[in-house]
Every structure is written in structure tokens, then in C-alpha cells.
């Protein structure tokens, strides 16, 4: 492919991250005026769209499940940086910001991304199929991570409230990294086939792996284009998080003026940060590749916990103040309902539109009860 062709294909995705980065730099110290906030919002949305494009280019080059893994890890690393940065700024919600954001990521991925993917995937064939072995192992890992990081702190007695003692927090961090590392090894090396799209018959029964080389899509991009997209993906994600941080004070003011709980701030930020993965998952589902959508959803939830908790634990070495990781009673009940529904969704390896509606209903219940506890 000629250099001209590469430039043509990358023209708008190339300009968008660069423009968003310029907006981020220019407005970093002064963004209180409504015009500046409007520009920041537009740049944020454009960055999300560009991030999805470049993630798909990289995923097409490296293949699956590595492509889904790259997007999930890239977004989560930036999300972790945002969480730690906001915790260092203090404020009334600093002690629970990590918990609220991570839990928001779990609920958005488990119910929002999964529910939307099932609806989009089943609209054409009325049923979607996926590998229950791979998806089930991902769900199991996330449940274990959430249990150690978010549920147990509400029941331990070594520290006051819903906190871990320093030694307990260190154990949770090591356990989270170990679980995440073990899953990545399973997904990419030991049992990679369990996470690839599957073919199925008219009843939704899995008949084998989907042939990704004969699906009518374009050939993988050249290495140079993939490397350019990888770099622009990083720029786009940095812009997404940086611009989201600029909007955070405005969001906090609106939340405060409306008398809403501070946890709503974490929900809004998580929605922005997870937007690239949500769009990518929806596109895969529309192409009848629900397995990739589930990889993104559960992989994002896993990375959100498995990378955030160790990073926060490390940050607490120099951060003062409490760190509340334990879920509130309402959050715990919603998580338990999500776990049960998810188990029934993935156990058969196929799902209907009904399961999508059920998951989206749980998402709506969580959003409503977060706003109106």
C-alpha cells in the first residue's frame, strides 16, 4: 500500500486525536467559560470515536483475542491514572471514589455493554451464540476479583468501616494482579480458542469457530498503519481521560446543586471512559461477533478491578485519609443480582433478546438507585 493511501485512510482519525490533544493543552488551566466547556465536550466525543477506530485497526492487525485485550487494558490503565489523580485532589468523595468508579465499571460492563450487545446481536437472528467455556471463565474471574476487592471489605473487622487494613489491602492487591495475570495467560496462550467468535446453527448451537479470514472484511492493515493507529489510540485515550477530568468540576457542581450523591460523579466519569469499549462492543455485536463483545465487556471489568486495586494500594503509601472499598448494602444486592443473572446468561453459550432486556433493566435499576438511593 502506498504512503498516499495510508494517509488517506488515516486522515480524519489522525487529525481528531491531535486536535483533541491541542484542546486539552489549551484549556487545561482555563476552562470555566461555557464556550470552553462546549469545546471540551465536543473534543471528548470526537476522541471517543477516534479511539474506537484506532482500536479496531490494531485489533484487525494483531487478531483476536489480543485486539479486545489491547483496548480493555489501554482504557483501564488511563482510567487508573484518572482515579489516582482525582484521589490526590481530595474532596468529600475522595475516600470512596475508587470504589464507586470501579463498581460503576462493573455494572456498566456486566449489564450495559452485555445487554446492548445481546440486543444488537439477536435482532437479526433472534439468538446469539458464544463459547460458554471462555466467557464463563471470564465471568468467574471477575466475580472473584470483585468479591476480594469490593465485597469482603464490608465484613472485615481489622479496620473501621468498609476499609481494609494495610496488610489486607496488600493481599487484595497481590491477589488481584495474580488473578488478572492468570486469566490473560489463559485467554492469550493456553486456551485462546475459547475466546474466538463461533459459528452456530439455526437453533444457536455452537458448531465451531468462525472463519475470520473469509468474512468479507478487508485484509489486515500493514504494520506501519497499525503502529500509527496504536500511537494514536494512546493519544485518543489520554485525551478522553484528560478532557473528562476537565469536565469533572462542572459535573461535581451540577451533582452538588441537584443534591445528588457524590457516587454519581464516578458513574458519569465511568460512562465517558468506557464509551470506546461500549461502541466497539456494539459494532462487533452488529456483525454477529458477540463473543468479541463479551470479551470486551468482561475483560474491561476484569482489568478495571485487577489493575485499579493494586494501583490504589500503591498510591495509599503516600496518600492520607481513609480508603473505603466495601460496597454499600444496596450496591451489594445489585451486584448479587447481576452475578446470578450473568450466570444464567452465559451457562448455555447462547442467549436471546430477553437476556439483553434483563441486563439493561438491572443497569437502569442501578442508575436510578445511585441517583435516588
UniProtKB/TrEMBL annotation:
Location relative to the cell: Membrane
Membrane topology: Multi-pass membrane protein
Keyword Zinc recorded: no
Glycoprotein as UniProt keyword: no
Alphabetical UniProt keywords: Membrane, Transmembrane, Transmembrane helix
Domain (Sodium/calcium exchanger membrane region) ranges: 34-188, 229-371
Domain of life: Bacteria
Transmembrane segments: 12-29, 35-54, 66-89, 101-122, 134-155, 167-186, 226-247, 259-275, 296-319, 331-347, 354-371
Protein name: Ca2+:H+ antiporter
Species of provenance: Kineosporia succinea
Amino acid at each position: 500500500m502506498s504512503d498516499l493511501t495510508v494517509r488517506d485512510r488515516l486522515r480524519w482519525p489522525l487529525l481528531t486525536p491531535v486536535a483533541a490533544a491541542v484542546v486539552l493543552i489549551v484549556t487545561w488551566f482555563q476552562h470555566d467559560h461555557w464556550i470552553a466547556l462546549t469545546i471540551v465536550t465536543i473534543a471528548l466525543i470526537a476522541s471517543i470515536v477516534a479511539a474506537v477506530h484506532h482500536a479496531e485497526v490494531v485489533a484487525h492487525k494483531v487478531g483476536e483475542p489480543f485486539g479486545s485485550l489491547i483496548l480493555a487494558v489501554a482504557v483501564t490503565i488511563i482510567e487508573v491514572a484518572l482515579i489516582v489523580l482525582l484521589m490526590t485532589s481530595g474532596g468529600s468523595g475522595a475516600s470512596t471514589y475508587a470504589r464507586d468508579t470501579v463498581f460503576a465499571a462493573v455494572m456498566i460492563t456486566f449489564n450495559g455493554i452485555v445487554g446492548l450487545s445481546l440486543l444488537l446481536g439477536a435482532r437479526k437472528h433472534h439468538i446469539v451464540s458464544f463459547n460458554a467455556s471462555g466467557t464463563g471463565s471470564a465471568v468467574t474471574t471477575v466475580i472473584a476479583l470483585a468479591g476480594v476487592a469490593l465485597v469482603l471489605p464490608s465484613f472485615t473487622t481489622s479496620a473501621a468501616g468498609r476499609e481494609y487494613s494495610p496488610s489486607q489491602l496488600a493481599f487484595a492487591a497481590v491477589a488481584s494482579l495474580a488473578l488478572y495475570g492468570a486469566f490473560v495467560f489463559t485467554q492469550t496462550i493456553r486456551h485462546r480458542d475459547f475466546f474466538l467468535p463461533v459459528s452456530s446453527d439455526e437453533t444457536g448451537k455452537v458448531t465451531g469457530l468462525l472463519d475470520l479470514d473469509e468474512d468479507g472484511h478487508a485484509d489486515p492493515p500493514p504494520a506501519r498503519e497499525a503502529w500509527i493507529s496504536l500511537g494514536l489510540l494512546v493519544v485518543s485515550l489520554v485525551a478522553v481521560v484528560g478532557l473528562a477530568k476537565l469536565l469533572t468540576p462542572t459535573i461535581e457542581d451540577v451533582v452538588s446543586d441537584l443534591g445528588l450523591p457524590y457516587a454519581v460523579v464516578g458513574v458519569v466519569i465511568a460512562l465517558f471512559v468506557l464509551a470506546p469499549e461500549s461502541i466497539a462492543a456494539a459494532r462487533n455485536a452488529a456483525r454477529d461477533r458477540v463473543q468479541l463483545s463479551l470479551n470486551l465487556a468482561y475483560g474491561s471489568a476484569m482489568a478495571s478491578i485487577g489493575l485499579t486495586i493494586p494501583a490504589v494500594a500503591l498510591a495509599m503509601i503516600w496518600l492520607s485519609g481513609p480508603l473505603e472499598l466495601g460496597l454499600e448494602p444496596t450496591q451489594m444486592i445489585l451486584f448479587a443480582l447481576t452475578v446470578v443473572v450473568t450466570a444464567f446468561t452465559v451457562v448455555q453459550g447462547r442467549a436471546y433478546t430477553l437476556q439483553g432486556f434483563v441486563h439493561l433493566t438491572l443497569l437502569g435499576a442501578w442508575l436510578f438507585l445511585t441517583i435516588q438511593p
